[in-house]
Amino acid sequence: MNYDQILQEIYQEIQPYAGQGEPAAYIPDLLKVNPDRYGICLHTLDGQDFAMGDCDERFAIQSISKVFALAMGFARLNDRLWQRIGVEPSGNAFNSIFQLELEHGIPRNPLINAGALVMTDILLSVLEYPEREYLAFVRSLCGCDSIQYDESMAASERDNGYLNAAIVNMLKYYGNIENDVERVLRFYFRQCSVKMNCRELSRAFLPFADHTRAFSFDGTELTTSQVKRINAIMQTCGFYDEAGEFSYLVGLPGKSGVGGGIAAICPRQYSVAVWSPRLNKKGNSVMGLKALELLTTKTAVSIF
Amino acid sequence: MNYDQILQEIYQEIQPYAGQGEPAAYIPDLLKVNPDRYGICLHTLDGQDFAMGDCDERFAIQSISKVFALAMGFARLNDRLWQRIGVEPSGNAFNSIFQLELEHGIPRNPLINAGALVMTDILLSVLEYPEREYLAFVRSLCGCDSIQYDESMAASERDNGYLNAAIVNMLKYYGNIENDVERVLRFYFRQCSVKMNCRELSRAFLPFADHTRAFSFDGTELTTSQVKRINAIMQTCGFYDEAGEFSYLVGLPGKSGVGGGIAAICPRQYSVAVWSPRLNKKGNSVMGLKALELLTTKTAVSIF
Amino acid sequence: MNYDQILQEIYQEIQPYAGQGEPAAYIPDLLKVNPDRYGICLHTLDGQDFAMGDCDERFAIQSISKVFALAMGFARLNDRLWQRIGVEPSGNAFNSIFQLELEHGIPRNPLINAGALVMTDILLSVLEYPEREYLAFVRSLCGCDSIQYDESMAASERDNGYLNAAIVNMLKYYGNIENDVERVLRFYFRQCSVKMNCRELSRAFLPFADHTRAFSFDGTELTTSQVKRINAIMQTCGFYDEAGEFSYLVGLPGKSGVGGGIAAICPRQYSVAVWSPRLNKKGNSVMGLKALELLTTKTAVSIF
Amino acid sequence: MNYDQILQEIYQEIQPYAGQGEPAAYIPDLLKVNPDRYGICLHTLDGQDFAMGDCDERFAIQSISKVFALAMGFARLNDRLWQRIGVEPSGNAFNSIFQLELEHGIPRNPLINAGALVMTDILLSVLEYPEREYLAFVRSLCGCDSIQYDESMAASERDNGYLNAAIVNMLKYYGNIENDVERVLRFYFRQCSVKMNCRELSRAFLPFADHTRAFSFDGTELTTSQVKRINAIMQTCGFYDEAGEFSYLVGLPGKSGVGGGIAAICPRQYSVAVWSPRLNKKGNSVMGLKALELLTTKTAVSIF
Fold this sequence. Notes:
The structure is a homotetramer.
Chain A (H helix, E strand, L loop, with lengths): L2 H11 L25 E6 L4 E5 L5 E2 L4 H13 L20 H5 L10 H14 L3 H13 L8 H10 L1 H12 L7 H13 L1 E2 L1 H12 L5 E3 L2 E3 L1 H14 L5 H7 L4 E3 L4 E6 L3 E6 L10 H14 L5
Helix pairs in contact in A: 1-12, 2-4, 2-10, 4-7, 4-8, 5-9, 6-8, 7-8
């Protein structure tokens, strides 16, 4: 497969989408980023990598961080995890708390905010130094020690994060949060604030595409079966209420963030990260979605 | 892959689940079936087939029929289809009509009842002899001319199908049904009443797993891209509000029916049909689900 | 109280509201009526009556008919009625069926469509000649033998009544309808089609305001306590999701219909009927609501 | 009316209900109270008062405090109040936040928690010394300077008030809270913690029943029309999702609290307060409800 040429073609063909959509406005720090950035990077299992565009500029990974938290928690609790979080798609906007009320505090899956808040609570309970270990895991995945929390963004998100504060209080009301709500919120927003560039993010997702090597990073160990299950959850739940659309158009497990990033994997083939800050109405990167759709069309390889 | 041995092992390992669950009670005709039947059949792309258990007894395919309707409608309307039906998982029980109210009569996807009723309405509008052509398509897929509607079951389901009558009236209220509601209901229940055995059903799904040969059956033609998209929809929406669980445990696109059947495919590898009438609380076959979970575990091949 | 002068003043003061709102468009026959009609009639307990405007033109009472059905059913089942229907306000638009799903087929109260359909089912079960007896009861209440169903309107409403068909099928699904759904719908729409003028409607409501004389009309007998309870239900549930607003602004038990009519009572004082076809967005008569607000302001008498 | 004898008879007739229900368990301090207390006190407009049972023991008024906050806010904002809060019954349990999500942060009415939290926010914005002025208003209404907040109960409720914390964060998210969420919660729970006995509470509600004297207490002035409107809101919204039932059985405007108190008024006749800590499943006092039902039955006077 000539990935260099494919990334080149994709770049040409997504130009008509440049300028469409708006960056997320509810996190002030995100508005400081140039909204017209576009970068894509792809790592294959045989050790090659291909990049195009703004691949060296870091951005806040936001909800993509939920995949890392899921991996850490799943490795430690295994299937006991599912007593506190489901694996079903939410079928509603990413911030809906109606479902929490109907289902008495059990979030639908680990990739919506409610689920990630419970996962954060779990990490606070099982890890000795949660913030430090989370960062160490991410650094280990992408092989880069300079990955950091953006403390200023995390603090600003906490100050304005009323919806997540509502959700975590609801969860606590239903008995599904063990730690202090403020402690949970602080850690959650720090995870969201982690900054990575497309090269680092693609590299960090490569182990999720690789069933040949053991998944073992800084104390987080997953079996092949567990890695596949994380893939399955990304496939059905990774794009808020656009998960079906992504599955329909792209056909890869993945996760998006409101910072404009999307990471996805083609099992046994490659991992890919794309970034472009302008979002559609459902909160997913306009150019990012289109780029991945073109990628699976041009390679004629998806999971289906 | 020694599928014969795998089916044998599966048969042994699912015995502890025998007798668990209950057959669907709301369709009287389904209760006449021996609830302890179990059959499985698998067709590979290279032309082999493997069977085990009650593979020659026909059962009502019920909701599995929605996949055939989707194929027929998608072939004819292509992407215009999505103006009337979505592709997102429903995130609710299979019979919820709350979502219809919230979303003004646009069903979430073609594999829930509301979506299949709209699809039925579409087929009534675009086909000249809808009932005859539907049956011809299914016969052509499995290469068996004796496939029939069970008219008595269809009539009985219509007589007691108050929930589907409620749904189709809601859809009509929102302007998403063109034909007479009674006409739509009659055709819908006839599709559900189609009887096939595991061999025939597995055979009928093989073309959805095969991207090398053209999909062309009795006038219904689908491109490779369209076939993949039907796979994607089965993957995210095929198991009511257990779609995530199925994806998590099995990792194959598929569709279940309350008659106890499940059909699934492993793209580029095989199709499989399993049947056992006892259902779990979400309406999916207990032994069927377990058999497919064991199948992907033992073959170590899934889409992830 | 000089009611003549008050009705006169009201007439002057509501002129600025003339032309506001639109008549109900979903029932074709309602659009044949001159939308700028306005009539009001008031009957006092001491036997006087006062009228103003278009008081002799009959209109379809539509949902006001639900009060008559409630009286007939309550008289016959007494408190057993509440096993099948609640007495709580619905807190949602008049056509919501989400609540039915959440509450498993028990309508919130007898004055929303779902409740009235159950009430209609009850009347079909307990009355020998339901249509004839219903009409006889209404005629007896207002002392006028020429009150009739508008059969053409009833038939036309049935033909287009998809939402009510959805509701009655839902109710049947939950086991809360004993009779054939089509039979229930036909009788329900006949009740809605009853035509009365303001004089007749006001006269028909007078017995609900009168606790001194026995309530006994053509076989329907209610105790004082039952009459008060019907008042209480009208007070909390009579105006769809504008019941609180009506209670806040007017402070009288009453019931509105999409034909533009409103009937209300001031217990121990008077009954009143007002009619004007232009409706606000919640389906209540614009001039009718304003007239009643002015009435309780000018008389300084309400239930509060 | 011989109220002494009526209260005596009520006392006899409610004995079969003694021991039914449970006191609210989610507020630890409420469990310290003897659950078998029962007291009732009634004040007539002509200056008499009648009492029976445990009328001198103070209890936490809890949600009854919402009526006082409504009076203070309504007096100051008049109809501008309704831009931020509705007047419709909620039709759901007292703690539902689904409605907030559907209606974008506008609470249904001022007597549910969400509405009272917005009202608390309003008082924080318009009053100079909110806590002090609130207490002064309540003291002025009942003519007793020893009324106090129970600071310990307020603090304990805040510590465990996750649901209210969720609600106020939701409201803030939708822009309907101006002040700091913690500040709002603290003041809200202090209002709930106010302790009064039946004599004081009945006395405090008397001005809401009296349309002959000006409503003017410590700077809070309401017109007769405003007082009637508060009555109307109590009538339709005062008992969570049992408002219709209370209206049906009792027929008086009123408000209950989870401390077991209920205050109600019969306009132009009397005010009444009853207290008994055991609650039914909807959170209203079992013996209190029954006592008020007997009161309006025996006096044969209600608003209907």
